[in-house]
Hints:
This protein has helices spanning 8-27, 37-45, 51-58, 62-74, 96-100, 102-116, 122-143, and strands at 78-83, 86-94. It is mainly alpha-helical. β1 and β2 (86-94) form a beta hairpin.
Amino acid sequence: MINLSNNLVRQIGLLYRYMMRALEAETAPLGMGAGRFSYLFILYINEGVTQQEIAYRLQADKAAVARTLVQLEIQGYVERRNDPNDKRVTRVYLTEKSKAMQADLEAAVGRVIDRLNLDRDSKEQEAIRDELTRMLTSLDEHYNVATNTK
C-alpha cells in the first residue's frame, strides 16, 4: 500500500505549494503575484515572443495565458501588438513599468531560490535538477503530458 502521508508525489506537491506561497510573499510588495512573474521573466529574456510561445515555455493552457496577459496589460506591465509582418500574430512586449521593476523582481525570486538551495552545493543542486528532469521525461514519454503548443 502507498504511504500517502510521506510519498515522493506528496512531497513534490507540498514543495510546489510552499514555493508558490514564498514567491507570493516576496513578489506581493512589488504588485506582482507569484503566478505572473514568470511571464515577465520570459519577456526579460526574449521580448516580443508570441502568446503561443509563452504558453509553450510555461507549459500552460493557451486560454489561461491569454487571460493572464489581459490582466498584465490592464495593470500596465505588458502590451500586445500585432506582428508587422503577419497581422494574425500577436506579440507581447514589456512596458516601462515592468522594465523598471526587473531588478527588484529578480531579487525577490532570487531570495526564494536561495532559501530553497540553502546548504546545498552546486553538485547537489545539479543532482536534484537532473533527477527531476528524469522524472518529468519519464512521465512525458509514457503519458505525453507536456503541453506542446508550439
